[in-house]
Amino acid sequence: MKTLQIPFTLFSNKQVSDNDTKLVTFRVPFHIVNNFDELVKFKRGTRTSYLVGMMDTFIRSEVKRLKETNRINEFISDIRERNTVVEPLTKTKQQLRKTRTDYDETYYEPPMLPSLGDGFGWTED
Fold first, then answer.
1. Coil, strand or helix: which one is 4?
2. Burial of 62 by CB count in 10 Å (0-12 exposed, 13-18 middle, 19+ buried)?
3. How far apart are CA 49 and CA 60, in angstroms?
4. How many Cβ atoms sit within 10 Å of the Cβ of residue 108?
5. How many whole angstroms from its chain centre is CA 40?
6. Which of 27, 32, 95, 102 could staple 91 via S-S, CB 3.0–4.6 A?
7. For 102, which DSSP code?
8. 8-state DSSP, 85
C-alpha cells in the first residue's frame, strides 16, 4: 500500500493512503477561483489545504449547531411532556355566567341613543 505525504498545512502532516482520500472535482466561477488562488499563493499554502480546512470548519460548526438544535428540541419536548394535561372546557357560557358573582355588575346594556325629546333644545317641526 502506497502512502502519500499530503501537505495539509492547516491540519497535520500525517501519512495518508490512497484509500483515505477522494478526488473531488467541481466547477467554480473564474473570478472566485482566481481570487482564491491569489490569496492562497500570498499565504503560501495550497488550494487543497485551504479547501479541506474550510470543509472541516464547516462540518465542525454544523455538528455543533445540530447538537444545540437537538438540545433545544429536547427542551421543547420536555416542556410539552410536562404540560400535556390540559383540562377541557366543560362548562357552557350560561353555566359560567350563573357561577360568576360579578356577572350582573359587568353586564352592560347597550348605550341609549338620544332622541329629540331628551331636552337638548331640539324641537320637532
1. strand
2. exposed
3. 16
4. 6
5. 34
6. 95
7. S
8. -
Do 7 and 49 form a contact (C-beta atoms < 8 A)? yes
| Residue 103, pLDDT above cutoff 60 | no
Q: What is the pLDDT of residue 79?
A: 83
Q: Provide the 8-state DSSP code for 33.
A: H
Smallest Cα–Cα separation from 53: which of 22, 91, 11? 11
**Amino acid type, 62:** E
DSSP label at residue 5? E
Phi-psi region of 119 (alpha: psi -120 to 50; beta: other; left: phi over 0): left
**Residue found under cell 472535482:** 25
User: Where do the domains of the chain lie?
Assistant: 3-84
CA 92, CA 101: separation in Å to the nearest integer? 16
pTM for the model stands at 0.47
For residue 97, the Cα-to-chain-centroid distance in whole angstroms is 43
Answer whether 93's CB lies under 8 Å from 107's CB. Answer: no
